[in-house]
Amino acid sequence: MTDPKLSKEEQQILNDFEAGEFKSILTPERKKELQAIAKETFKKDKRINIRISSHDLEALQRRALEEGIPYQTLVSSVLHKYVSGGFHDIIANKAQKH
User: Fold this and answer.
1) What pLDDT is recorded for position 95?
2) What is the spatial distance between Cα 12 and Cα 8, in angstroms, rounded to a whole number?
3) Residue 96: per-residue pLDDT
4) For FRET with 15, which of 27, 53, 60, 94 sits at 20 to 30 Å CA-CA?
5) The pLDDT value given to residue 44
């Protein structure tokens, strides 16, 4: 069945997927590792209270809505990525180079 919303390439990918042409390369060991990482990432055992501008809160809530997740989860994820080195402050990095 052809979906008029898909490009030819997207339709071919969908057709191949539905025909069973794609096979997972995820090993049991890697799956276990990813599950452990995910569990630690979303482990929430502490609570904090912060004050932010209403403008920033509304922007966070909009972004979370776009992602389909609660805004608190988005904030927690962003903070986790930042402290674990996943996010970099581009402005600070530019300032250090000059």
Assistant:
1) 60
2) 6
3) 62
4) 27
5) 74
- pLDDT computed for residue 81 by the predictor: 84
Separation of alpha carbons 14 and 75, rounded Å: 34
Q: Which ranges in the chain belong to alpha helices (H)?
A: 8-18, 28-41, 54-67, 71-83, 90-97
Q: Give every residue of the chain whose pLDDT is below 50, as ranges.
A: none
Tokens of 96: 């250090």
d(CA 55, CA 44): 26
∠ Cα 33 37 43 (to 5°): 145
Side chain identity at 17, as an amino acid letter?
Answer: F
Q: Which residues contact 78 (CB under 8 A, 6 or more apart)?
A: 87
Letter string b/e over residues 46-57, b meaning 16 or more CB atoms within 10 A of that residue's CB: eeeeeeeeeeee
